[in-house]
Amino acid sequence: MLLVPCPNCGPRNAADLSYNGESRPRPDPQTCSPEEWRTYLYLRDNPSGWLVESWYCSSGCRKHFTIERHTLTGELRTPILPGSKPGATKGSTK
Amino acid sequence: MGKNKPPAKYSAAGLLWRGLRKQSWPRVWREPEFKNSYDVVIIGGGVHGLATAYYLAANHGITDIAVVDRAYLGSGGSGRNTAIVRSNYLTPEGVAFYDRSLDLYKSMSNDLNLNVMFSERGHLTLAHTDSALRTMHWRAEVNKLQGIDSSVIDPAEIKRLTPSLDVSTNTRYPIMGALYHPPGGTIRHDAVVWGYARGADAYGVDLFQQTEVLDILTEGDHGSGRVTGVRTNKGDISTPIVVNCTAGWASTISAMVDVQLPITTHPLQAAVTEPVKTFLPTVVVSGSLHVYVSQTDRGELVFGASVDPVATYNMGGTLEFTEELASHVLELMPGISKMRLLRQWAGLCDMTPDYSPVMGPTPVAGFYVDVGWGTYGFKAGPVSGEQMAACVATGETPHLIKPFELSRFTEGNLVGEKGAAAVGH
After folding, report:
1. The CATH classification of domain B32-83+189-263+354-421, taken from the options 3.30.70.20, 3.40.50.1010, 3.50.50.60, 3.30.450.20
2. Which of B11, B14, B46, B286 matches a 20 to 30 Å C-alpha distance to B218?
């Protein structure tokens, strides 16, 4: 079982959250080329190692947040709510 | 270099002769000397890599090939899948492709002189909802147009074919019908790996186990350029052509030449029970219940499920999987509630957004991929080997795999096989 530390709700079973996958910057759909947009949609780094990914706390605080996870060992670190400082954890985000 | 002929046939007389004289068996493939130059290097010693090597040698006369694997041959998905084969897919591209694969599997025991124990026992995909039943009709019609034996059958017929299934209407997920595909069945997957390894070896292909690729050497710009060689833990190999057949690890190999793939790696878990007398004559698949089950020749039930939702390279098993699997299987077959699970395992699946593979050339000259096989790589092993061999040997992408080129993602031409490949096995 994977325990994912939500910045608001603390550690929760991964099954309680929605997994959005690899976090990457979204190009501006108004100005980017179709190729750039499709690259953003489909292509992934998919490393065997540390990966910054996005989760959605769907049955808790209903916030999206990013977290670094080691895709081989399952280790997790630095959960971040968008707009907050790195390292912010439960209780320190408000 | 080898003898350039197919390997000697195994026979009952040979078995008796060796048994009586207490002779030891010869090694099935050589332990070759490491050379520092090859015409082709194939990374990944599973069904896809070995089949590509075999067909390059058998069909195109290219025998100066090295197949390198980080662990042992067939240690990845080739030895971890649930050994089911079928060709009742949804898109015409998919149907044509998997049907060719099924043809190659049927003649494989003769072609490779090794019994792969193909059991053409019939394949049932159950429908539990009206919409699922509609998709079954759609698939059946697409299949019939392509000349594939596939039809929709009612619960009474399902009960006749597979008596252990609960087709009553007072269950949570009543069985409303099924897509019946008689040519589907199971094959012993290890035998397929060994057969291709033995066949390729006899043509002079060098197979290197426990040889990890550390880097791919290129000249020219990053992400375009040209392949010049491969750096392994046993030394450098210079080669103009590298084929990536590493399934779950495909992204890590492609990253060495800065080719980004539309792939995320997810584990798929499977489990096997203790052996019992034969009672399940078909392969049973339920998309809604995320489970597929077949009985092996030894009598064990082999279960598989859908991929785990979180991308990871970790092949550990989870209790959630076992619990879910048990509850779903008992929905279908309440009679097996006292059976015990012997073990569970996981394999890595290289999932693509459109549930179709990525095959053929890449922007880096000489770097070919045969990846993105997700949960259905074993079924397609022979035909992808054959077509990748043609692709590498001629430098042109054969029409059968043209729809699966990497460029389809940036061009926006996805294949859309999710309806038939997301869970169904």
Report:
1. 3.50.50.60
2. B46
